[in-house]
Each structure stands twice: as C-alpha cells, then as structure tokens.
Amino acid sequence: MPVPWFLLSLALGRSPVVLSLERLVGSQDATHCSPGLSCHLWDSDILCLPGDIVPAPGPVLAPTHLQTELVLRCQKETDCDLCLRVAVHLAVHGHWEEPEDEEKFGGAADSGVEEPRNASLQAQVVLSFQAYPTARCVLLEVQVPAALVQFGQSVGSVVYDCFEAALGSEVRIWSYTQPRYEKELNHTQQLPALPWLNVSADGDNVHLVLNVSEEQHFGLSLYWNQVQGPPKPRWHKNLVWPLEPDSVRTNICPFREDPRAHRNLWQAARLRLLTLQSWLLDAPCWLPAEAALCWRAPGGDPCQPLVPPLSWENVTVDKVLEFPLLKGHPNLCVQVNSSEKLQLQECLWADSLGPLKDDVLLLETRGPQDNRSLCALEPSGCTSLPSKASTRAARLGEYLLQDLQSGQCLQLWDDDLGALWACPMDKYIHKRWALVWLACLLFAAALSLILLLKKDHAKGWLRLLKQDVRSGAAARGRAALLLYSADDSGFERLVGALASALCQLPLRVAVDLWSRRELSAQGPVAWFHAQRRQTLQEGGVVVLLFSPGAVALCSEWLQDGVSGPGAHGPHDAFRASLSCVLPDFLQGRAPGSYVGACFDRLLHPDAVPALFRTVPVFTLPSQLPDFLGALQQPRAPRSGRLLERAEQVSRALQPALDSYFHPPGTPAPGRGVGPGAGDGT
C-alpha cells in the first residue's frame, strides 16, 4: 500500500518530525555484500523447506546475526512503500579434518592439485519472511575468498533489499543455509504503529478516530476481515471535516468467488456430534450450507438422502443444530451441501454406536383417514411392502412386516406425516447360511466316504485341501493399521521395514508411508479416521508404535487435551490420530482392538503413558512371537509356525535395526579394528 511521507513521520515518532529514511528507487529486489565477498540473488522466490541438519563436511559459512532497517521503496516521487532491509552476518564454522595415513602413502599429495583448505567457501543462504498475510523465501549465493577464511571469525555480511511490510504489523525472519548445518537464526520485529489512529469497539460498532491536522492530505485503506455470518452493512459518519466530500471507498472480496479458496475452506471444516440429537459444523468462517440425514448401508453403496420425509435444513457455522431423532443409529449419516454440491458427509453416530449394521430402513408414510404405506429403502429405490419384486427386501417383506408389528424394529423418527424404522436382517442371513453350511457338511460327508473307499488317493486329496485352506487364510489376512510418530527419517525407514516384514505374513498392513498421495489429498485427520473405521469394522487391529516422540505427544495431549505446534511434517498421522485414539482408551474400547509396541534400546515399555498400557505393549524384536500372536485373529488357534514367522520377521528387520542404531561409519559396541579390539582391556 502506498505510504505518504507525512504518514511515516507520524508513525515513527511521537513528535511531528520527519525521520530520514533511505529511499530505494525501483521495484526490483537487490542484494549487496561486504567488501571482498561476492553475492548473487536468485531471480525468483523459493519454497521454504529448511530440511534436517546434516554434518558439515569441513569449514562452512553460517549465519550468526540478523539485523534489520526500515527503508522506503519508491516507484515515483510520491508513491513509496515501507520496506524492511535485512543484513545477515556470516562466519566460518567447522574445521578441516586431518588426512588419515598421510605418512603411510608417501606424504603429501601431488603439489599440482590445490589443497581444499586453500580454496574459497561458497554458501546458499535462505531468508524466510513472514508477516500476515504474506510469506516469502529468497535465496542468496555468497562466496568468500580463501584469504578471508579464518575459523571462528566473521567474514562480513550480505544485505537484502527488501521485504515489504505494513505499519503496525509483526514480522518474523529466519535465516539458514542449504544444506542446513546449524539451527536457523530467527528474529521478530514489531513495526511502528500509528499513534494518531485510535480504534475502539462497542459490540458490533467499531469507532475509528484520526487525529490529523487540517493541512495534511492522505489516503486511508480499511481491511475488513469478516470471518462469520452474512455480510453486514457498514455505516460511517465524517466527524472531522463535515463540509468536505467523502473519501473514496472500495469494497474488494478477492476470495469470495475463488474455487480454490472454497476447497481449502471445506477441507478444514468438520462435523462434530455433541449429544445423541445435536451436532454442529466447525469451520474457520461463515459458509452458506444446508444439511440433511442420509442412510448408508454396508457394502460401499452411496448414502441415500432421507428427503423426503425429512427436509434440508440451513446450517450456521459453530451453531448447535438438532435433528428430530428418537434414537441414533450407526447407519445414519449427515450430508452437507453448498451450491448444490456435496461438501461433507460424516456418519456421526458410528463412533459411539459401532460399525455399520446390515439393517433395512423402513419408511412409513401416513395419509388421510389413517391410511399408511411402507417401503424398504434399497440402492435401487424404495421398494413397497409387500411386493413381488426380485430385491432382497421384497423377498423378506413378509418377515420384515412381522418384525415391525412385533416391536423388533427400532423407531428412529416419528411425525404426523410418517416414521422411520430400522429392522435387523442378521437373523435371516444366519438362517440362509445355516442351510448353506448344512449342504456343505453333507457334501463333506459324501466326499469323506469316497476318500475312504479310495485310500490310495486319500493322502493326495488331503494335502491339496490343506494347501487350499492355508492359501485362503493368507489371502484373508487380518487388517492391521500401523501408527507411529515421524521422529526422524531413520525411524521412518525402520517403520517401513517392519511394515514390509509384516506384509509377508497373513496380514494386510496399512501405514501412512505408503499412502502419501491420499494423505495429502484428504488431510491427516480424515485419512486416519477412514483407515481406523475400516480396520475396526473388518475386525482388524490398530498398532501403536511408541517412540520418544510419540510418548511426548501422548503426554502433551493427556496434560492439555490439545496438541501444540511442533516440528512435525505435514504427513504425521500419529499427531492427527490422537483425537480419535484417546476416546477409545478413555471409554474402555481399546482392549482387543489396539496393540502397543516399541523397539529395544530405543524406549522402555514403562515410559509409555499408563493409559496406553491398558493394552499389551511388546518390545521388538525380543517379544516378536507374542507380538505376532496378538496380531492374529482373536479366536484363531496358535499356529506351530509362529516361532518360524517370528524368526522370519526378525531377519527382515535386523538390517534396518543395525542401520538405525549403528549408522554407517560408526563401529558397533564391543567391536573394533585390529588385534585385541573388543577385549575389554
């Protein structure tokens, strides 16, 4: 925003004295450095990705101090912007390692090759600038001649012109090198405010008072951040110069029609169930939306809206809403539409009432003179009962009507115009399967009789049957969701090795390392919520892999109830999963569905918070047999091959353990080089 010269004099001092600020002509960024140094500014901004700290290969340039200065960037004589100049002071850190076996190989190297310690030093210095609502990162290339390279001594500074900033804002600046050898420098600065501007609020009324003399001419831009509710009319009254014409006003909402902004907003929105009948839409700001109930049957069919008999309801962000339900049901879900497009869908009652049930929803419609009709909601539509159609509900229509009359169906909603009933279908499925099993038993008995008559071929048939059973069990392996805290890249490789080893067993392993694309598209919370629900619905197990970072996050959640900011990456599903994992432990639903584990020499099981020790916690690889036994189906018999499988997993895991606890180039404990190494003397 253009800043007049008189405005700076008012903002930067209590007395009306014009401060002398340096003027920069032009709109291009620039850089310059101390005498003797050479520097270059990249043409465009870069991504702000500091990366991990790596060991320095020798002497390196490192930022040691940040210094800032206010300047003016002027495109014209009266068109200037306030700018922040940043100076980065650099020093030489580290030292050259002495060459090994120099005497053994005949002294110094060929004198025709320049020694590295006599060469110049180069560095890529990153400046990261953040001031709401902007953030930038620029890259400066600096080269120091060999004559100025002195270990531990400052070599000069490089200056960047400049970051645009607003009066009264708080700016934060970080500086580090690529690659990063040391912890980044950071500097926070509060830019001068406007002492002649006073803003106060009384309810929805905002009072703005300007104390400026009549001789001054200025332009004022107001930024209105409307976070919730419909647009409000803005009323103003000129109390300073009543005879002067009103100033020019412009109303700009740049993101109102931006589809990307709407997508980001809906990705941050969440539905929360408060009680059995009340819920709310949690979103960062106001959204035009409407919601209705839908019925979701197991099997992957789309959720069918219950409109009619129910109707769409307008939704207000962060306001408690209620549906006229008598009872909750796991198959009931909430759909939220905006601009005639489905934006959110959550089965809010599934967490408290369990997984989806194979129930049939009956819609009762009441007409005049006490006439009523019933239909069963199916993917193809609502099938009238009784009916001669070929659908499942039509074939069982007589039994469903009997269950409704005998009170075996659960009434979910009741109104003068109709009602909703949920009728269980499990017993009819069990009857059908009983006939199937009876037929299988008769077939098995006949087959056994034939095999007894042909003893020569009996062993071959039994061997083939045993192989088929084993292959079928492997194909239907139990689902396992592996959760961990991404402490560092080495630990992620260790988790990947464990997941790959478990996949060789009759297990279907899910881990965020293998689902980066889905995790980025859905967000960590939504991705974990879907994986956890699918795993538990299939009778699987959730494995909590504890590490020092995971224990710290769990302790922080248990103390504060919310996770604070940390240095975790955008794909850290463990941090996002705690909001769903903790209720299972607090409400006693974790045993049988959760298992804990940690690695030997990395974490002792006693360090795991007591709340999470209500489920078994195993140390790996020392307790691999018990760990694999806990991952089997709950009623599956202990196989004699369990020790063999544990040995197989241990062999696959050992290289990753050795690489994590003994990185390349460091000898293992108790080992050495040469005679007598490791003898303890």
From TrEMBL:
Biased composition (Gly residues): 671-681
Xref: Pfam families: IL17_R_N, SEFIR
GO biological process: inflammatory response
Annotated region described as Disordered, given as residue ranges: 657-681
Subcellular location per the Swiss-Prot or TrEMBL entry: Cell membrane
InterPro entries, per the entry: IL-17_rcpt-like (IPR039465), IL-17_rcpt_C/E_N (IPR027841), SEFIR_dom (IPR013568)
Record-annotated membrane-spanning stretches: 433-453
Entry membrane topology: Single-pass type I membrane protein
Signal peptide: 1-20
One GO CC annotation: plasma membrane
Domain of life from the UniProt record: Eukaryota
Record's keyword terms, sorted: Cell membrane, Disulfide bond, Glycoprotein, Inflammatory response, Membrane, Receptor, Signal, Transmembrane, Transmembrane helix
Subunit comment: Homodimer; disulfide-linked. Heterodimer with IL17RA. Heterodimerization with IL17RA is independent of the cytoplasmic tail. Associates with non-glycosylated IL17RA constitutively. Binding of IL17A and IL17F induces association with glycosylated IL17RA. Forms complexes with 2:1 binding stoichiometry: two receptor chains for one interleukin molecule. IL17A homodimer preferentially drives the formation of IL17RA-IL17RC heterodimeric receptor complex, whereas IL17F homodimer forms predominantly complexes with IL17RC homodimer.
Protein's name in the database: Interleukin-17 receptor C
Naturally occurring in which organism (per UniProt): Pan troglodytes (Chimpanzee)
Highest classification ranks of the organism: Eukaryota, Metazoa, Chordata, Craniata, Vertebrata
